[in-house]
User: Fold this.
Amino acid sequence: MSLLTSLLVLIVVARLLGQIFQRFNQPAIVGEMLAGIFLGPSVLNLIQANTALAGISELAIFLVVLSAGLEMNFKDILNALRGRGVVIAVLGFIIPLAGGILVGTAFQLDVMRTVFLGLCVSITALPVTVRILQSFNLLDSDIARYSVATAILNDVVALLALGAILNLPEHRSFHSVGISIISTSWKLIALGSFILGCNWFLKKLVERGVHLKKISERIVNLLGNEALFGILVLFVLAFGSISEALGFHFVIGAFFGALLIDRKYFFPSRYNELDHTLRSVSEGFLAPVFFAYLGLEFNIFAMKPYGFVITVLAVSIGSKILAGWLGGILIQLSHTRSLGIGIILNGRGVMELVIANIAYERGFIGQDLFSTLVLMGVVTTIITPLLFRKLIIPKLEADGRSEVS
Assistant:
């Protein structure tokens, strides 16, 4: 099958299954990944992963991360480190990370596979979290506030950990690893200083009366809304390039560059147009290709032993529920809301799959573990809204009725 035909079939089937899953209040990415699994070696074997599709997938990763960064606010990350929410955020990362590492150790995986398993288990994807909460009209609730804060912190820490791992030397003696850790620490400080410096500079511009929204409006009036989108992409590309120059993955810088782009820098109508343009390119074309491509790389026959797969699924689900519930109880939330947070934290989706794909492409993990991580992303994302609707929504509605009466 030619590249064009493969690409068209992949897009059509991914979009179709994505829309079907959305009709059942499931994230579209689940259907898109299943499209790749269905068309790939696990089922029909019609399309194989190749270099050309991998290149398109790399571009898709950039736009997926750009979209995720735009959904967040730099101030929200700083706020997530303050107050009681940090308890849930820290437990929501450490307990699943420890669970993943214990599973890797028990099944005698090497260090890199064990670390990546722990990282992928520890992640909660912000876009998936927001969309699930939005579907239940709970974005202004305690559950949403603490879940979103945890997702933000988990994603940021996981991306920084990824950057440190990618800087480790190929031949790992204690001496070389120690030097690498010191070098990586300075690079992380340099990257963090650059990001914080840019944030400080943008704030100072606003404080001194520079109306950034008027500048963006002039650009649109002069060159059109597409020019504003182009400048946004160039801004984020600059951060990605600096990240890559320091030895980290391009995605890390792109993510933080997108974080710095605040809605207040645009008029509401212009921001909505910008968001619409990005979603048209990303969700309408490239994002489905990326998630379907992950499905193509998934190989059900490579997932052995099955005891390992079942253990990974059980630990990934159980550790997140335990972390959210325990964190909620510690900050004196009700059992229902604490359990609700734990369930919501299972929505891994985008960021877990991005990190798994990077680890697979760089050779840190094999197809067996990669396929297991893709399956984990699919299963945990599917069961999150189902469990929440079954176990939490009836109790929240009962609590609401009792408060009214």
User: Anything to note?
Assistant: Residues 111 and 354 are 20 Å apart (CA to CA).
